[in-house]
Amino acid sequence: MMNFNKANRLVAAVVAIVILASPLLAQQRHNAPKKRAAVPEPAPTFDSLLAADSYKVYCEVRGVGGLIRSSAVNDLIDPVMKLGGPPKEFKTVVKWLNAHADVLAGSRMLVAGWPSRPKLPTVLIAIEFSSPEEAKKFYPELRDFLPKFLPTPTPTPSPTPSLSPVASPTLAVSAGPSDTQDTRTELVVAPGVAPQNIGTVVKKEPEPTLPPYQMKQAGSLVLISDIAFTFRNLRPRGSKALEEDQNFLLARNRFASESLFLYVDLKSIEKEEKEQRQKLEEEAQKRAEAEAANPPKAEESPEMEEAEMTAPTVVEQPIPPPAEASGSLQPPVVVASDDPQSSSNAALSGTPQGDTDEAGPMFYSLYSALFGGESKWPEAIGAALVFEGDAYVVRTLIIYSAENKGNAIPFVPQFVSGPAIVPESPNIFPADVDLFVSVSLDYPQVYEGMLKAIAQAEERARKYGGQPVKDGPPPETPFAAYEKKLGLKIKDDLLPLLGNELALALPRKAKKAINEAPANPREDNPAATGPNQQNTNAGPNPVIAISVKDREAVGRLIPKLVEGLGLKGASLLAQTEKRDGTELVSYAGVFSYAFVGDFLVVSPDPAETRHVVDSYLNHQTLSSDSHFRNYTRWQPRQVLGQVYVAAGLVEQYTIGGGISGAGFRDKMNDFLSGVNPLIDPLTYSLSNDGLGPFHELHVPKNLLQVLVAGMLVGSSEAIPASNEAVAKSIVRTVASAEATFKSTEGNAGYGSFDQLVSAGLLSKEMLEKYGYKIEVTASGDKFEITAVPIEYGKTGKLSYFMDESQVLRGGDHGGGAATVADEPVD
Fold first, then answer.
1. How far apart are CA 231 and CA 218, in angstroms?
2. Residue 820 and residue 812 in contact, taking contact as beta carbons nearer than 8 Å
3. Quick one: pLDDT band at residue 153, thresholds 50, 70, 90?
4. How much is the pTM?
5. Exposed/middle/buried for residue 537 (C-beta within 10 Å: 0-12, 13-18, 19+)
6. What span, in angstroms and rounded, lies between the C-alpha atoms of 403 and 409?
7. Dihedral of alpha carbons 248, 249, 255, 256, sign
8. How far apart are CA 799 and CA 792, in angstroms?
9. Rounded to whole angstroms, how far apart are CA atoms 378 and 196?
10. E-assigned strand segments in 568-627
11. Mean pLDDT over all residues of the chain?
12. Residues β-bridged to residue 60
């Protein structure tokens, strides 16, 4: 009884302890830290996919579906489909895209290339849909289509590994073939070889080859790349997104409404090239240090020493001067020519003059300085393409850093733009010009840049040419002698007289009536006018217009400038002609100038200068032409540059230029019958809208159609000739393989094509790869080889034949086979 009471008390105590401790345990569990559930990372978006330093080239296409069905795209695809003979893959892509244009109507696509870091795809394509559901729906359709366009390469079987050869006799025991793999076990028994050297050689089946692309769907994105990747590689933790890069943001906002947008990160490209150069320099320095620390020992063999001792000594003898030379240099012989232009030049420059020697180096240095010097490359370039009306518009924004302002054209260092201008040269140039170019230049900065470029070129020549660098004042510039002779300073006396506008015009080739009946009777005298008329018939000469601030001062300097350029006695050759108060001056028919309005007009053809003066006086100028006004109306009022290419010149170099062959003309005529026959002018402008130099080019749609058609027809005309040359070479190669086969494996007999391939003498790829079908028949000591175009007229026209006589024969059989009756082919 006492034991029972003790047990009850013990149980009660335990229950009491549990009841009292339960709130404490509950409180501890409540206060214990909870494990945070893993939060899945949000799916990448179109804008947050890439880091700013992932790729150097970025392209964005907006409204993919609408673009596919737009006339701007289809009008360019049309000549490709009709004239180009595109491959089957191209036609498949075009058909599939048109079928899925509705699905892609509101989508965007980006293409990124030129990776900046390892483990990144070389090319990454991302297509953004309106919702994840739309992306998920499109993913299987694209997955099923890509193998048709990018088929997986056929796997090649791997060779069976072999054991190390043993020079002693061996005993081989082979196991039977397995159901799953081809296994062969070899037991090698040789003197001194332990029994455990038992090798099992497994001939594995070829592993399946991966497709040449990778696909992935994440959120509303469908991604395609050449290799597998992770989103963390595209944008590492802590990296700045591409959309946060200031240069990218500037360019993208500027071209927010264009159909195609392209961004090139030149700063990253320059950085990568600099690192590569530095790495190469360090490697070269290490090699030089290693060679200096361990110089190679020169060990000469006795044979070498004997050869050096017995080698004959060659003594260079001075070359005697020609018999005609009499101790002084003679002027070059002037060869008579029937060309009047050549005769005139010989008459003017046949006598050696010191002035010419001074002007020649100056012109060479002038040319080198204009296109030399160090270029200031921008940090980035943004470009866009948009379709407006009947024109393709290309816009480009050059982005420089705030502290490094460069030129509007980076690869022309000395093209320093002046202030924005309203071009005045169209008010003086004739309306019938084919080409018009106007730019605003800062002449003092251009001059300083040229001098700097010349000094840098001379310094590099001394540094790398081994010339000692002398202390003292820098050497004289090439203009120094010219300035001394003129008695003036170009920078101080000439450049302040000039305005900012410089213009060029190219007149039409069709000569004006005024040239056929010159007003000046003295032009009938060839001695007075030189080759003026011949030059006129040969083609148009450019006309240059330079705006001037002081006509009288420039007029006084021109005779000095002309004589300084090497035309001695220019004032005696000058002919003056006045037309309604405008004075026109020409020098021996090879150079002329006139002051028209506020411009100095210069041309090598006096007739062209005269035509500019007459057009200006008759108010038939370019600014009054309706075509010029209509097609340049889109340009801003103030520009840094302007280009206008008239329809006549465009047609000359597209429809009329370079057409050869009846087939070419027939195909072009058939295509042009469905194209607008009126080619619009091509126009361009250069401006600065506050963000940087801004280039804009307007290309007429029908012009681009004609250009594409011309390239395609030209290439298609060249394909048959190229295939015919390849086919002749293949036939000769097969005949040579037959001769080799007969003397080796053929046992004095020729073989079939398959036998030649099995012998390793030929490849099956040549059967139909080059547009020709090659067939070989062999029997005993005779064989015949025929080559027939797969598509007559498209892949080739001539058929070829060769037999054991090794004589290549051929002819045009309309796609049929050639025979032994055909004539030999060279």
1. 10
2. no
3. confident
4. 0.70
5. exposed
6. 18
7. positive
8. 10
9. 69
10. 574-579, 582-587, 591-596, 599-603
11. 76
12. 110, 261
Q: Locate 580 and state its tokens.
A: 């309604």
Q: Which residues contact 709 (CB under 8 A, 6 or more apart)?
A: 79, 83, 668, 671, 672
In this predicted structure, what is the pLDDT of residue 163? 42
> 788 Cβ partners below 8 Å, 6+ apart?
772, 773, 775, 799, 815, 816, 817, 818
543, exposed or middle or buried, with CB in 10 Å at 0-12, 13-18, 19+? buried
Crossing angle of the two packed helices 443-464 and 354-371, in degrees rounded to 10: 100
Whether residue 126 contacts residue 113, with contact meaning beta carbons closer than 8 Å, is answered with no
Q: Which two tokens stand for residue 418?
A: 């002046």
Kindly tell me the burial class for residue 528, based on how many C-beta atoms sit within 10 Å of its own C-beta (0-12, 13-18, 19 or more): middle
* DSSP reduced 3-state for 420: coil
Identify the residue whose tokens are 């232009």: 341
Residue that has been written with the tokens 């498949």 in this structure:
92
Encoded amino acid at 574, one letter: A
Q: Which residues pair with 576 in a beta bridge?
A: 585
The two structure tokens encoding residue 564: 């300084």
DSSP 521: G
pLDDT tens-digit series, residues 527-561: 344 433 444 445 678 999 999 999 999 988 888 88
What is the rounded CA–CA span in Å between residue 465 and residue 551?
Answer: 46
- The helix/strand/coil state of 324 is coil
pLDDT digits (tens, 9 = 90+) for 274-286: 999 999 999 989 8
Helix (H) or strand (E) holding 202: strand 198-203
Lowest mean pLDDT among 86-95, 352-361, 452-461, 595-604: 352-361
**Cβ neighbour number for residue 695 with a 10 Å cutoff:** 19
